[in-house]
Amino acid sequence: MQGTSSKVFITGCAGFIGFHLSKRLLDEGFTVLGIDNMNNYYDPILKEDRLKILKKNPHFSFIRGSMENLELLEKMFEQFNPDAVVHLAAQAGVRYSLTNPQTYIQSNLVGFFNLLECCKKHKIPHLLYASSSSVYGGNEKIPFSIDDRTDHPISLYAATKKANELMAYTYSHLFQLPTTGLRFFTVYGPWGRPDMAIFSFSNAIMNKQPIQIYNYGNMKRDFTYIDDVVESIVRLMNNGPPKGDSQPPYKVYNIGNHKPVQLNDMIKLLEDQLERRAIKNYMPIQPGDVPETFADINDLIQDTQFTPSISIEEGIKNFVKWYKEYYNIS
What we know:
This is NAD-dependent epimerase. Pfam families: Epimerase. Residues 8-256 form the NAD-dependent epimerase/dehydratase domain. The protein is an alpha/beta fold. It is built from eleven helices and 13 strands. The protein has a single domain (3-185, 225-256, 294-309), classed as Rossmann fold (3-Layer(aba) Sandwich). It has helices at 16-27, 44-55, 70-80, 96-99, 101-121, 156-175, 197-206, 226-239, 263-274, 298-304, 312-326; strands at 7-11, 31-36, 60-64, 84-87, 127-132, 179-184, 187-188, 210-213, 220-221, 224-225, 250-255, 261-262, 279-282. A seven-stranded parallel β-sheet has the order 3-2-1-4-5-6-11, sandwiched between helices. A two-stranded parallel sheet has the order 7-10. Helix 6 links the parallel strand 5 (127-132) and strand 6 (179-184). The longest helix is centred in the middle third of the chain and has 21 residues, at 101-121. The relative contact order is 0.13.
């Protein structure tokens, strides 16, 4: 895809990954149309502040709306006629899906179905969409490979993400719609999501509140820095759609750092950067949680010639620098 001549439709553009991807593409001369429902799953002010940055670019247009609104989506596709679609809008969170399941069905299933229908109708050259490392469920084989079975999700959130992959495969098979699934592994960094561990722990530590450490600290996460995630998406976009040949034009990738980090080690790094000690409350593992995530990224490296490489030390340092600036902490 060539900068100024390329138009990209990004769903969830005021979200964490959506904001960073939109900004990167705008900086490279793309025209970006974004949609976001600006819900209050976490502080909407953070989403508004991300949007303010994007709106400074004349090549960015924004529609406030939900993926469940098929009529609105149709209108956007007809007027904008995108060269590619990156679908990042979703109801996120494993634990939230235990208490608010209906939200996941509407946003993650109905919303994704509407998007697939629009992409089919308008013959979109390439749809890239967010999946999640949670699709691997309770898999004990490490690292997680895209060739592993993913038919035992242990949360409704994971089930909806697996359903998205199956729906995408069906549309690729039936209608030759090129789709690329992105299985994200614990993405973090500046402008991140307040419900994610690094951000929520920072809030608790700075407010002298206890942090809940599940599985008694015996958790490992493949923390993946936002810049590595965006670079992976951009390269997959620039590569063009998966090649059909005799198979459907469909592929999924693990987007991870390939270096799992013990939760206690992450907390120590956070304490050092924040210059405060955490009040630790150790608890059993929660329903829907997995003890370890670890991405096999061989396909990503092979197809994009890119290896995510930003270390947890550098990533947390960058996050805390942003966090202190954003909240005016001296």
